[in-house]
Every structure is written in structure tokens, then in C-alpha cells.
Amino acid sequence: MPKSKVKKKKTLEQLQHGAMWDLVKRNMTEDQFRDWIFTLTNGESESSAALTFEMKNHVITQLGGTAFTRPSKSRRTMQHERQKNGVETLVTPTMMDLMRSRWRMVEGRTDEGLEQLSLNIIKVKKPRTTKECSKVIEAIKSMNSREISKQKAKQEAA
Fold it and tell me: To which H or E segment does residue 153 belong?
């Protein structure tokens, strides 16, 4: 069976490099471009690999393209700052699905029962934020573990 090839996601630098070369091929010869790189790098290199992110942006804008913008902070840093500032994240459909699937692990549970549990824990029928959803999920996990231990005890007694 042949292996499926997973296409790697290109980095911002790779996309920028490709865009730069597309513009170069439309506007000048390769020799002209290498001479230009030589002047941009103050005589250090003729290779486009030697160009910095900002230099490549300069080349792109000079050739009529739009410059690339680099994200100012990593996603992890942005999430940490949001959490520190008290910004609450809305619950995702994935988390809601996880909550429902955990709820249905025990036979006989209904959607109305889940709504009632949510009402008791977070005072609303459905969680709105990830924090609220996490509280309900943790409660369901505790309920499930108690239920499983009860079932095991009944099986051992029989």
C-alpha cells in the first residue's frame, strides 16, 4: 500500500521568497537580480538566501508587490496575555461535542439532564466560555468515575 504524502505547510519566509522570485521573473533577468542583491547586501552576496525578511520585503515592494507582515507575537504569547488580562474565550464546537460525548458515556442520560447539570454548576443551560465548559466536563468526569466504580462493585458482589 503506497504511503500518502502529507503536504507540508510553507512558512512565511518560504511564501515570501516564492513571491519575490515570481515578481523577479516577470520584471528582470536573473543576472540583473543578482546584481541588485549584490548592491542590497553591500557586496556580501549575490544569493537571494542572504537577504533578510525586511530586504525581501523591500525587493517585493520595489517590483510592485505587497510586502509581507510578520506576526508580532507568537500565538502562545498572545493567549497568555489574553488570559492575564481576563479575556474569556468562547466555547468551541469541539469542546461542546466532548462534553456531550462524556455525558453519554453512561447509559440513560438525556440532553435535558445535561442542561440541568449545567444549570446547577454554572447557572446557565449551555456553557458560553471555555472556562464554564471545562467546569461541566470535570463534573461529568467525576460522575462517570463514580458510576464506573459502582458498576464494578456490583459486578464483584454478584
Answer: helix 130-157
Helix (H) or strand (E) holding 113: helix 111-122
Domain residues for the domain of 19 are 12-62
Same domain (yes/no): 82, 45? no
Residues 84-93 pLDDT 10s: 998 888 999 9
Three cell numbers, residue 122: 454554572
Residue 129's beta-bridge partner residues? Answer: 90
Identify whether 83 is part of a domain: yes
Element (H, E) at 78: helix 75-85
pTM over 0.70: no
Q: Into how many domains does the chain fold?
A: 2
DSSP letter at 50? G
On whether residue 70 sits in a domain, the answer given is no
Select from 29, 16, 13, 11 the least CA-distant residue to 59: 16
